[in-house]
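Deliverable D5.2: sample structural annotation.
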Amino acid sequence: MHFLRLAAAAVACVLAPVIPASAKPPVEAYGEMADIRSAEISPDGRHVAFLQRIEDVDYVLVYSFETGKTTPLVNAGEMRARDVTFAGSRHVVAIASQLAHHVNFRGRWENSAAFAINLDSRKIVQLLARTDDLWPAQRGLGQMLGMDPGGKHVFMPAYIGKVGVNSEPSRDALKVSLESGRGMKVSGMKGTSSTKDWLISRDGEPLVREDFSDQTERHEIFVRDKSGWRRLRDEPKDTPQTSVFGISRDGQSMLATMDDDAETLALYSISMTDGAISGPVFQRDDADVESLVMDTNRVVHGVAYSGMFPTYQMFDPLLDKQIRAVQQSFPNSAVRIDSWTDDWSKILMHVEGQTIAGHYYVLEREGMNLKLVANARPAFKAADIGEVMTIEYKSRDGLTIPGVITWPVGLAEEARKDLPMVMLPHGGPGSYDSVGFDWLAQSLANEGYLVFQPNFRGSTGFGASFRRAGDGEWGRKMQDDISDGVKAAVGMGWADKDRVCIMGWSYGGYAALAGGALTPELYKCVVSIAGVGDLRMLLASEKKEAGDRKWVWERTKEMVGDPNRDRDGLDAVSPAKQAAKFDDPVLLIHGTEDLIVEVKQSHRMNDALKDAGKDVTYLRIKGDDHSLVENESRRQTLGAVRDFLAKHIGGKPAGATAQ
């Protein structure tokens, strides 16, 4: 896999605020990729690298603070650019992927790779491409574990081995040249087939190796010292209880989260001398530690917590205070740390929500100077963005359900009553909706709909009890939470009970179909994008995908159900098995190259509804994946959704655009 060609000419992009046009954008514009995405500031603070899609081709570009100019580096051709980062200050690394298959292996996968671009010479190399014995079929190539002190090499994990009968590759850490792309084997960095992760020191030496064997059900952590590898922890568990994430700033301990039956996920310290666990280092009663703020070598500077708005806790008290000050200057918006310079003198921050569709700011900490450097979505001005607010309501068993409301664009507060509403449950279900610029919700608000996004039980981010309350409740209590959200909106006078549609993507698509099958009296129409219709079919696919990872399969059964023990119960909440109960028209949308939810789920749902004599429309999006990342795919999707909703619950007529 390789980039097809360099960008032949400068592209029409300047990393600076753009004055949008006065006319409102059409609904299809909401689905297009942001003009600027995956931006990252260089370690020396001189550049920002980012991705931009131009005429449906992804470009990697770099902006110079010194010259004020934006330079195209490369285009991804037929591949999809996924991310961009820096390896030191002189190399930009782009991650791209495309669907792949191999003659010696069954099935397809998203084949990703990393490409290093030298900012001085513009030379491009594919990292790991010239590596001996690189296993031909593996996901996730492109991850970086750290850099060497000279800045000429990065360390990357990859499966290494020769394809043959009964062969099994090992997951090694390789030293990869940023100039040649070749990966080199290094003493002490050979893993096993069970190796999950590595930690590399700032000096380029292996520090920690984490293994988990699905066969022996043992979770082991090894540390390396002068005598070689030493087992630090050995936990006989059927699932990994500890996840090693990063290294403390003094280099003497690991920082990790643990599934220790606590209500919220916390950060702990593990001594690299004796394996002793101390802490929690960071913990909150009302939120999980969701991710770590760490540098290229995985040195941890702080944590990000879950919640309706992003919040941080940093080891440096002054940095912690300054980040909070920036967040407080954007009330009702999501303010996230994007990247930072090596000395933390500058921080690139991303802001969206309320009246902002996506702005990048650079915070110069000395003097607390905040500069707007990019408008990620210049087509949208404040008047084009529906107001977003958070809400809580009670489910029928008394559980408090948090959610997000997006009001129709430009609607005065006194007019917010008896509105057509789209109930929009999220995917996952292990995720949650929060405040930000949700392109799908905003597109619906632009068409005059109230949008309700409930964080039903089973959602992450609100504590272990709330998440576990969703186990085994697909189509049952999880669905009740969504139904009770509809009733709450109607009861508050916001929504017209006769003009409610349920719509969702992935698990949300299942929830939409379950709403149509199990509570048809609540809705006038159903939209399922990449949704699940048959739970036993889903479980069969998940079991095959889990393979030898028994813990993955066991956890899936806990969440969804056991097909051997509860066949009838699963069928009772499978929309495809309950097609005769539908009263509402259904719109199905699915990408033909979906590797997350097989497209045959929508095939099955379409056939079941047609056989039952129901009103169903099926839009197949050719050549796109689960997320429908191509602009044309999203244009088709939003156009179809616009016309479908307008027909069944009101809104703008077909073909209309906002003026």
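Annotation notes: The longest strand covers residues 105-118. The first helix runs from residue 317 to 328.
The annotation will be released with the project's public dataset once the embargo ends.
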